[in-house]
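Entry 14. Two folds queued back to back today. First construct below, sequence then structure tokens.
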Amino acid sequence: MAEFFITRNDGVVELRFNRPESRNSLTFEMYQALEQLCQNASSVGDRVIVITAEGEKAFASGTDISNFKQFKSAQDAIDYEAMIGRVIGSVRACTVPVIASLHGIVAGGGAAIAAASDIRVGTPDTKFGMPIARTLGNCLSVGNLDRLVQLLGESRVRYLMLTAEFLTLEPLVQSGFISEVLESPEAADDRARALAAQMLTLAPLTLSATRDGLNRLAVKSLPEDQDLIERCYMSNDFANGVEAFFAKRKAQWRGQ
């Protein structure tokens, strides 16, 4: 079964995640498909990108953890975070608007993709989180932390990360992270497509100038974070977290 589908309709291109059996956990191929879509949008005539997901339980639950079984060195972790950074950066730097239709669990890499999108619609069951302190014991790059702080506020991000809890719909709407709430995943997908169709009727230079201007306002010099990535990904705790996930047991954290 295909991990994702890409469809085009009169200037609107839709990327649909299609791994509902794993709550749409993201493979490297899925990340790369999104990156290429964003990088090539203008050259192939795409004017709006819509990201949706199959299944009732999740938009995307994060990176497929089987990928982490292959990690052997600090460079593997650094390369992974760099790859995620490129994907998220491609969404932010995309020459056309990106709309995400969210429902259910929005976590990890899925949360980062949602945060990088221009507009997010959701459903009453939408839950947003980065529960890595409970699941794997890795960390977010400083760039991803900064993006979450800009969207949700520092206090919410501290709560989110330090408790490993999920934010439910109310704070997501209050912060403006989710613009509209629809009654079902299907309704949210339809609304995202309708917003994309509406954008096709608007002045493209106004849209691009607005997005570029907002992105410039968000630019700042970020501190180095390689030592933080190595601290987490090269730890015994991270190896134990991956092992515990597949053994379906609770990880035992030792701070080592």
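Second construct, same run, same settings:
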Amino acid sequence: MVAVGSKCRVCKGPAIIDLPRHNAHFCADHFLELCRRQVAKAIEKYDMIHPDDKVLVAVSGGKDSLAVWDLLIDLGYKADGLYIGLGIGEYSEVSGQYARAFAAERGLRLIEVSLRDDYGYDIPTASRATRRVPCSACGTSKRHLFDKAALDGGYTVLVTGHNLDDEAAVLFGNTLRWDVEYLSRQLPVLPARSGFPKKVKPLVRLTEREMAAWCIVRGIDYLVDECPMAAGNKHLAYKATLNAIEQESPGSKASFYLNFLDNMAPLLAGRSASATDALGTCTSCGAPTTSDLCAFCRTAAKARAHEPVPVELVLSKGRRRR
């Protein structure tokens, strides 16, 4: 992580991490303090969370979601966790174990939802039934269940662990396509509106590497492996491209994304169709939708009517395509 003999910029003690975009090294204590400041700054600047908010954190068992939950608790916020079992074989089983262990060790409340047990399908089956890539079925399912859990539980804020790398990669992809609809909605805060909770991303000023380091220093065990069904996802390619640029020009990702928020996002305000379209109500679940059935209920109906598909079958098909 850091060259032997490197000194912390703040206290001159032994450093444990180098952060080229800050042109500095930090010891463990001052690195943690930097992370706290960055999260606190994001929360304040974008008006994410208030002290009296009832907060729900979407957790996957990975470093980012567990780190943001830990950071919020460390900063004095009260927050519960939400884990969704997606039925992606051993990957889901292990991820659930990490989420449960984190919550149990800290005496935190973890709400659990199982796609297979509670809704009669899983992501491999949904992918095959809808004839769409697994990430599409996964995103549709998670967004709906995040919203439902937050609203049903009376939570005023839903937190996700999207970090700077995630947001910069999504912005890069949307910019390559000049997708104004998505660009206008790529914000660190989406306000609450009828049928939708307020959604916030407190990690937008911190990188994936910094979140991994936070977990190591804080002694947080997390699932290291990427989702096996994400292989080939363009998002990963965008991340790799931006990492190459960052290597040559440290700070590029932060400049790209944060300057977008400051300079371009205000010009796109009001351009999102979802902000202006009149939404109806899903005839099955009551969620907001532009058609009779919401995307989640359409996906769930197709998946439940399909014979269960083992995750290995979907993965082998993906490998043959590549």
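Quick look at the second one. The chain has a mean pLDDT of 93. The longest strand covers residues 79-85.
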